[in-house]
Specification:
Blueprint (H helix, E strand, L loop, with lengths): L1 H5 L14 H11 L5 H9 L22 H7 L2 H5 L1 E6 L5 E5 L8 E4 L10 E4 L2 H12 L1
Length: 139
């Protein structure tokens, strides 16, 4: 939370706060998959925000550029692979939380131009490790 409070924000975009139970349930319904506990915990702190290079995604149907379900709809094969987009890099690429298989719980990077159907590199052994690094770079 300290890192989240230190991240620079555009003046016209105040901190939106965390998602409530209804917003989390709505996001799960729109995604069509249950959310991992770590992601629910993060969304309760930050429901999606235009911070860091490409924003952190979440329960933001009010802002499609920050909405996890809107992003997943652009790459429907990610759902079958068990990947949930959690952040962008500002260049049209995404960081995804792996929710199934041997890499479950880790965060990978997908270069959508080179190959939107494969993880190019692993960027964090957990969502929290990834977010700590992401927010530290911007904070």
């Amino acid at each position: 939370m300290r890192l989240l409070s230190r991240v620079q924000r555009p003046p016209e975009r105040p901190f939106p706060g965390g998602a409530d139970d209804q917003e989390i349930a709505d996001l799960e319904r729109r995604l069509g998959v249950p959310l991992p506990d770590s992601l629910v915990d993060w969304l309760r702190s930050c429901k999606g925000e235009a911070i860091c290079a490409g924003g952190v995604l979440g329960a933001r149907p009010d802002d499609e550029s920050l909405d996890m379900a809107t992003c997943l709809a652009m790459f429907p094969t990610w759902r079958d692979s068990g990947w949930l987009p959690v952040a962008g890099d500002g260049c049209g690429n995404y960081f995804v939380l792996v929710t199934s298989g041997e890499l479950a719980g880790q965060v990978g990077f997908i270069d959508t131009i080179a190959d939107p159907g494969s993880i190019e590199s692993m960027e964090g052994r957990s969502l929290w490790v990834f977010l700590r690094r992401l927010l530290s770079q911007d904070g």
